[in-house]
């Protein structure tokens, strides 16, 4: 078993060269699993799944660890409402940039290194909360911690190399949803850790700093696990993988161009800004909102806020699953309709949340809003893998970055100024969600159609193969660099809806 | 279906609780008798006081203008924010409805009402935030409802204010631990990475 570099520079760590009967799960032409066995840890597919979502979840825990402790931190550091809001914006802004970079890193070096490097190099940023003494320091540290949310991209990319396109909605939705759960777990974890440390004798203004060591240690543990137990590729040694036509080394400029020149990329950037983006914004404001508006204790507000993030456990996978079901009957058009319906419903519930005057209605509205927004995230990433095969990493990165950009923008407009109360901000955020979801109607795949238009009947240009192979120019096709796209197009026939052939497995 | 029934039942109970809670009329600050107590708060030294170290000498006694004295059972003395410390901080807002008011969150002392003048030496707690403050004493009746108050400043809350500087909450030991773990994380990563590259080279040269 060698540790030489394999496909696209990624490490061959953990890859066995023995090909006889080697996988625990049935696989497709690209060695990706066609079945999702949740409670298995068998390598490579399910083990990758668990490593991936847990390390992503850890990053959510640390990015939003400050949110439930803001009532304490704002008194220690003498923060104003603007400072708290700006720190929230900062916490999601860092990863706009890092998600883009991670997309390229995955395409070029592989998701295992991408994930491990980010998780372990961001541990120091979490520990540096001990040093913060004012608004500037707080905002800076939250900004730096936020970089680690780029593990979203490595997570989704890793899933796409390990699981076939027919179940990618469910798999991506589950991995990302359970990862996003970290935003809910942290609202429970941090107040409890803080309380324990206080009971052990620390004063309030020291206890919250010590509490940050917990997410820091989680970073270190997960980084080591990913390095020792993870692997980039399902299987095959370098020569076999090259023979199937997987590219030797693609050029960064080419994959970037392929991503940005596709208009669908930009629509998804906007859409994700108003599903994931609003989820992140809400993670930042909801605990403080319940604490201040309904006069609850810190840990009660934390419990309610946690249920927002924890709904991800089933909401996001449900969104991905709903998308897969819609695709089964209506193909890609079903996926697009499912996305529009779910995301718009989430927006309407958000409007209701801002208008709710009693605690119970607020909680009900919040839960329905969380289901809508999170299922929409799952439904989005059920479609993203089909936008491009060549630039999957960068498009995932751009979409993910769009999520954070939407979050930063929303927090800046509605939650950082004295112009809106938090409840008004929530209502307006809901209106913006509904408005920004309308562009999904513009997404059209020639081979599968769009929400209102049927697929193209052109015998050449209306095929999946044409769509994916046209990402390569003649010179590259001569070098057989496009064979992976051909295989992908064959597997993508599942998006034809009821006309789809039965699964092609090896 | 059992889970649906229990969810519905708990929702119903919550709603009932909500309705019953909202039925009582809210008590207002403007209805309290002003200046019923004469309160003074003298800092132990000049300048900005340090939380956890400096003290306040607080005294309170019945004012000659007080009328509701018969109802007083307990005196609750609290540390309150001056208007300058409430700017841009809606979580410290002054509200007329007493249960909503957040301008006096820090309890100093609670004592049974005594006709004679009272005093208390208060050491500023270590969780007092940086800000400008005054002291207010609420007179509370047997039903634990406020009936009157007195404060160490005027009605506009502009005189006799004092400033407090909070503790930082930082500790050298914490700083050192933080640096140690950070260094460990980066080193562990580098060690793993270099090791893997080295093994790969050995494999390839075989």
From TrEMBL, chain A:
InterPro entries attached to this UniProt entry: MFS, MFS_trans_sf, NO3_transporter
Parts of the chain that traverse the membrane: 51-73, 113-132, 138-158, 170-190, 210-231, 294-315, 336-356, 362-387, 394-414, 426-445
Any one GO BP annotation for this protein: nitrate assimilation
Keyword Membrane in annotation: yes
UniProt membrane topology term: Multi-pass membrane protein
Keyword list, A-Z: Membrane, Nitrate assimilation, Transmembrane, Transmembrane helix
Listed name of the protein: Major facilitator superfamily (MFS) profile domain-containing protein
Keyword Signal attached: no
Automatic annotation (TrEMBL), chain B:
Domain of life the protein comes from: Eukaryota
Cross-referenced Pfam families: NAR2
Keywords from the UniProt entry: Cell membrane, Membrane, Nitrate assimilation, Signal, Transmembrane, Transmembrane helix
Signal peptide limits: 1-22
Residue spans crossing the bilayer: 176-194
Cross-referenced InterPro entries: Transptr_NO3_Nar2
Protein's UniProt keywords contain Transmembrane helix: yes
Similarity comment: Belongs to the NAR2 family.
Function: Involved in nitrate transport.
Name of the molecule in the record: High-affinity nitrate transporter
Gene from which the chain derives: A03p029070.1_BraROA
